[in-house]
Specification:
Oligomer: single chain
Shape: globular
Helix content: 40-55%
Strand content: 5-15%
């Protein structure tokens, strides 16, 4: 079996989540137009651009059977921005009191245009006593129903489209424009949604998103429901958490959750089937098809008998509301009855057959697999005529598997028809979902394999266009097939454009999001609107931190009176923060530049337009088994496949890093640099453009995979350099650490590092700093502890500690402030009108946080130890810079969270410390109130300083040395010439070290990377 088939099979089986409570019946084919009925959904999108969503809420006291109430949730707002109702009766005349509240003062807008479905309605602007927030109310009547929406007037378009969707019982398309800070990504938005609804609703929504292929989002809903449910429902949620851990490769965590659930699940025929299936998926995820088959063949610990408790299993209230919702379908007995335990068991048995077929295919037993798939298709279709919405995706997967087996047997017509049937199922139930995209991508692959290249390309391009730049990581499995198709003929600019567009659907470092937020803040300078924007961002982070602190005490509140009191106090503070953020967003909405409808991707032509004539943008894309590159200049573009797999690149990068420096026993040891491997890596990465790349003055490189951990300036651009070095060191007493004369890529070109095309565009477009001072240097902590002073060779903190607390010894070796004072002298000296230096007792984290004038400096320069690993291997790393302790509240560390909260207006932040280009943990990001990212290099201290207001950051990839004054000379050289671009100044400093025998090893000159735009001026 080919690796491509194996890859596709694993993508299918990791998607296999069939739930207990998320199964409701859908209309048949003749009623497909009604499948988008709002009345059958707990949640629905508002508008077409994914910025707002409606979530059903628990019925109000006294509500009728068909009354419904929804919260409106929008990106970057910490709480619901509005509420919508459908209520029995005609209430338009008393709408203000009913929907805004007693005492509300409302004024009708006479000339206001009403949304679809409510042409005879009215729009009012309301205010409540004691609140500065204006509220908008839209209300109208249809028959004996009143439809109403009220919320912040800044979100009027969301209110219009939301209530129009309720009135017409379908999602009304349209663009929502809202005050958007871009501080939350899709997952952060999902967390907000998951915590705003009841536990059983959250569980149902988790399955819905899982069935649509939105697995990361589903995980957030499963987690929210598992924390709030108990009994069988909690077990069900925990099993799903285990499955998702397995899908992420965390097999030990998955096993722990499966084992914990076994005692409860084994007593239930339905839960036992669920656990059996999920453990089989776990085996498939670990490439163990025979173990999966054995698990599926084991008899269940419990099956259906006469136990009344089993026969009386019921679905949750959320789904009961859906089935009883106001709709013609609610009167259909076939649709209004909950699935019975036997029906749910039959669906899970159908899934088991599907998983068994997958395992058989992976074992090369295609005929047996086909028989199992046919049985699975029959089993699933028998339940309610196959009209159970929550398993339509599974039926589509079964059809896709049958299609591939038909293709292998040569029956191409049947294969195409089966693909079409699967797509049709998803088109009605999950349009524009990852599952729908995946099904279409599988059909495109079928076209490609059967010499229908044009049809395949058209379908792939349609998928990418419909995704509109939104990350769709489920497509990672299929992009390699698309890229191979694009590159099948002679590579062209068209192929480069298509590959460039598709690659932007993949997950990006969190730094990219933070750069987008900063760019929006800076888009209008430093006027009142920008200050409001910043305040909104900070309030959003404060809300997330407060929510995390509430979680800390919730579990103790029932048994600990102090915790209960703290919980009440924190919830009150959370409400106050949410109210303040709503007020700020309301004011921010008055500035058109901060209203947005979407982000979107950057086209190839858009990238070319922002490049200078002597610049090149090189984007790397690492997929599961292949690596691709896109090379872009203002007048040319080329896409190609790299001559290495991601695993091979990982090994090569590791070899090179180990030849630069290894930390062992608290010491950093250097070795002769592996020049031949560096040359090999250059050829593997850049062979099609090897001669062109060094001709560009400035290269902007967007790394991926292993290359996030290695700067490309140390790659060797010709064979002669390797040959000369090997001949020289063969001589007696030759210095194998002397690398003078090597044709490094960094010798020929200036290099910047980007994390996403849109992020680079945003950084380049950002206006320069308005700071009135040029330079602030910070470093040389006051020593403490018993360690020997002045013995450190690098700016890394390698000493261990106990209980995840750093040893005091790391504070005993401060980095001398010479380079800070030297840099300050270029701006008139420390204490002048243009430059300042903070050292020793003044250099504490508390003092830095208290400074009210950090935004007055264009350049911030830290020369200190970087703490980016952990005191001991079992401890979670907490990225930080080492400071003095002082006499106040300082803990001697300027942490990720503290840095993120600083207020900077800096063109350049210099982190003259070790490994500052590293990542951050989820815990560190959550401490800062950030709910996304952290898994990539550059998501640590670099991201924190960008979040604080640094446009471009100079950061290091390994422990930077103090031997031979290397780092002092490297950083000091940035300021040697006035009016230099940062990339040009860094290259000039690097050249001086390259040409010195003592510092020609890459360890001394290569570590620093310019993250952002190297064309920014160092001085001006």
């Amino acid at each position: 079996m080919t690796s491509e088939v194996v890859r596709r099979l694993f993508a299918l089986c990791t998607a296999a989540a069939v739930g207990l409570t998320a199964m409701w019946s859908a209309p048949g084919p003749a009623q497909s137009a009604k499948q988008q009925s709002i009345s059958l959904r707990d949640t629905f999108p508002i508008g077409s651009n994914g910025l707002c969503e409606a979530q059903i809420q628990a019925p109000e006291e006294g509500a009728g059977l068909f009354d419904r109430r929804y919260d409106i949730l929008c990106r970057d707002a910490a709480a619901a921005i509005g509420t919508m109702w459908i209520v029995r009766g005609r209430m338009a005349d008393s709408a203000a009191e009913r929907f805004v509240g007693t005492g509300a003062s409302c004024t009708e807008r006479e000339d206001a245009e009403m949304p679809p479905g409510l042409a005879d309605g009215k729009r009012l602007i309301c205010a409540r006593p004691g609140s500065v927030i204006r509220t908008e109310l839209l209300v109208g009547e249809r028959g004996n129903r009143t439809f109403a929406a009220t919320g912040l007037s800044a979100y009027s378009r969301a209110l219009e489209l939301g209530v129009a969707s309720l009135a017409t019982d379908r999602v009304v398309p349209g663009e929502v424009d809202i005050p958007l800070t871009q501080t939350t990504d899709s997952l952060a938005f999902v967390r907000q949604q998951a915590t705003s609804i009841t536990a059983d609703q959250s569980l149902a929504e988790a399955y819905r998103r899982s069935n649509a292929g939105e697995f990361a989002e589903a995980a957030e809903f499963f987690a929210a429901s598992a924390d709030a449910l108990d009994g069988a429902s909690e077990t069900e949620a925990r099993l799903n958490e285990g499955l998702l851990q397995s899908n992420l490769g965390n097999y030990a965590e998955a096993r722990r959750r499966f084992d914990a659930a076994r005692a409860t699940s084994s007593a239930s025929p339905v839960l036992a089937r669920l656990q059996r299936n999920y453990e089989a998926i776990d085996a498939l995820n670990q490439s163990e098809p025979e173990r999966a088959l054995a698990l599926l063949a084991q008899p269940l610990a419990a099956d259906f008998g006469e136990t009344s408790a089993i026969r009386n299993l019921q679905i949750g209230s959320a789904l009961a509301r859906r089935l009883a919702a106001e709709s013609e379908s609610a009167t259909d007995p076939a649709l209004s009855q909950a699935l019975t335990p036997l029906e749910r068991a039959q669906l899970l048995d159908g899934q088991a057959d599907y998983l068994g077929a997958t395992a058989l295919r992976l074992s090369g037993r295609n005929q047996e697999a086909a028989e199992r798939l046919m049985r699975a298709n029959t089993t699933l279709a028998e339940v309610r005529g196959g009209r159970v919405v929550s398993i339509l995706w599974l039926r589509a997967q079964v059809l896709s598997e049958l299609a591939e087996l038909s293709e292998l047997s040569g029956d191409l017509a049947r294969a195409e028809a089966l693909h079409g049937q699967g797509i049709a199922l998803l088109a009605d139930a999950y349009p524009d979902s990852p599952a729908f995209y995946s099904a279409n991508a599988q059909l495109a692959g079928f076209f490609a394999r059967n010499n229908r290249r044009g049809e395949a390309l058209d379908l792939y391009r349609d998928i990418v266009a419909r995704a509109e730049g939104r990350p769709a990581t489920v497509l990672r499995t299929y992009l390699a097939d698309y890229f191979d198709l694009l590159l099948g003929d002679a590579a062209s600019a068209d192929a480069a454009g298509d590959l460039f567009a598709a690659s932007q659907l993949l997950l990006r470092p969190g730094l990219a999001q933070t750069q987008a937020v900063l760019a929006r803040e800076l888009s209008g300078g430093s006027d009142e609107a920008s200050l409001l924007f910043r305040r909104s961002v900070n309030l959003g982070r404060a809300v997330e931190r407060m929510r995390a602190s509430i979680v800390e005490v919730e579990g103790q509140a029932d048994v600990n009176p102090q915790a209960a009191a703290a919980l009440i106090e924190r919830r009150e503070r959370l409400d106050a923060l949410v109210e303040r953020q709503a007020e700020v967003l309301q004011k921010l909405a008055e500035y058109p530049r901060f209203r947005a409808v979407s982000g979107g991707a950057l086209s190839l032509e858009g990238m070319q337009a922002i490049l200078g004539g002597d610049e090149a943008y090189v984007k790397m894309v690492a997929l599961d088994g292949d690596v691709y590159m896109v090379y872009i200049t203002p007048n040319d573009a080329l896409a190609y496949r790299v001559d290495a797999t991601p695993e091979q690149l990982e090994g090569i990068v590791q070899t090179l890093r180990e030849s630069i420096a290894i930390a062992d026993g608290g010491q950093v040891t250097t070795f002769p640099f592996d020049l031949a491997t560096s040359r090999e890596l250059y050829v593997r990465l850049f062979e099609p453009i090897a001669d062109r790349l060094p001709t560009h003055r400035h290269i902007i490189f967007e790394p991926d995979g292993a290359m996030l951990k290695l700067p490309i300036n140390l790659l060797v651009t010709n064979d002669e350099s390797v040959e000369r070095y090997e001949q020289r060191i063969a001589q007696p007493e030759a210095d194998e650490y002397d690398f003078r004369g090597v044709a490094w890529l960094g010798r020929a070109s200036q290099i910047s590092t980007a994390v996403a095309p849109t992020a680079f565009r945003d950084v380049r477009a950002a206006p320069p700093s308005d700071a009135i001072k040029a330079y602030l240097g910070l470093g040389e902590n006051t020593p403490i502890g018993d360690g020997p002073v002045g013995t450190a060779r690098t700016r890394s903190a390698l000493a261990g500690g106990e209980n995840c607390i750093w040893s005091p010894a790391i504070w005993s070796n401060p980095i001398q402030a010479d380079e800070l004072y030297d840099a300050a002298s270029r701006f008139g000296g420390a204490g002048s009108d243009r430059a300042d230096v903070l050292t020793q007792d003044a250099f504490t984290d508390a003092r830095i946080e208290e400074l009210g004038n950090l935004s007055e400096y264009r350049i911030l320069h830290f020369a200190t130890h970087g703490l980016v690993t952990a005191p001991e291997p079992e401890c979670p790393p907490r990225p930080a810079l080492l400071t003095s302790f002082g006499d106040g509240d300082s803990d001697g560390l300027l942490s990720f969270s503290e840095i993120f909260g600083l207020r900077l207006d800096a063109d350049l932040v210099i982190l003259s410390a070790c490994d500052t280009a590293g990542s951050a943990t989820v815990g560190a990001t959550l401490e800062a109130g950030i709910t996304s990212g952290g898994d990539f290099a550059l998501d640590g201290l670099v991201r924190a300083f960008v979040g604080a207001g640094g446009r471009t950051v100079l950061a290091s990839h390994w422990p930077v040395p103090d031997d031979f004054d290397a780092t002092k000379r490297l950083i000091g050289g940035l300021f040697d010439e006035g009016d230099s671009e940062t990339a040009a100044a860094l290259q000039r400093s690097q050249l001086a070290l390259m040409d010195d025998a003592e510092t020609s090893h890459p360890f001394y000159w290569s570590a620093f990377a310019i993250v952002g735009d190297g064309s920014v001026k160092v001085t001006r």
